[in-house]
Write a structure and sequence with these properties.
five-stranded mixed beta sheet, 6 helices, about 200 residues, 5 strands, Nucleotidyltransferase, domain 5, alpha/beta, 2 domains
Length: about 200
């Protein structure tokens, strides 16, 4: 059973990101403030949910949240500032979009930078403990997946519609055969060393 709040504040924002471990595309972050009485029988860490379930949850979260924000950190910026900083920057930008200023912020993971003067707490596996972080994980994942489906149309040979940019065997085979695209992160090891072609 997920908990509603970590702090005693009623305006507590949960934040999470998706796409950190991908070889291409953006890191997408979301922040959500839920009402105290928010409940949904299926809401959990987005990784525990089927794609269909996440798609059902997204409009429910958006309609019932007190506020939510979603931000995209594009691959060029990920390359420039590194993926950890991209995740934190993305969460900050998602919080910037909230139409209500949170009184407290809870973050999935163990790294964060101070956001203004607002107190915060990092929570490892927070997306399977707190409703607002779980809701943020669902928004981040669905917005990112939707974008990866869109760019898949342009570059079907990597099958991003299925792997969403994660380093699957199929994705790496696509890189080996067709090379990297404008969507790939240049600072990421796109192919393991042992798979480099001998020239």
């Amino acid at each position: 059973m997920l908990l509603s709040n970590y702090s005693d504040f009623s305006l507590e924002a949960g934040t999470d990101e998706a796409g950190r471990g991908c070889l291409c595309g953006p890191v997408v972050a979301a922040a959500v403030i839920l009402p105290k009485d928010f409940t949904h029988p299926f809401l959990n860490d987005s990784k525990q949910l089927s794609e269909k379930r996440r798609e059902e949850l997204r409009p429910f979260i958006e309609e019932n949240a007190l506020a939510f924000g979603v931000s995209f950190i594009w691959q060029e910026e990920v390359d420039k500032i590194n993926v950890l900083q991209a995740s934190i920057t993305g969460m900050h930008r998602a919080i910037d979009q909230l139409k209500i200023t949170p009184e407290f912020i809870i973050i999935d993971g163990n790294k964060f930078r101070d956001y203004k003067e607002i107190p915060h707490k990092t929570i490892v596996k927070g997306d399977s403990k707190y409703l607002s972080i779980a809701a943020a994980s669902v928004l981040a994942k669905t917005y990112r997946d939707e974008y990866m489906d869109k760019i898949h149309q342009e570059f079907p040979m990597y099958n991003w519609a299925k792997n969403k940019g994660y380093p699957t065997k199929e994705h790496r085979n696509g890189i080996r055969e067709f090379g990297a695209t404008i969507h790939h992160r240049k600072t990421f090891k796109l192919l393991p060393e042992q798979l480099k072609l001998k020239i």
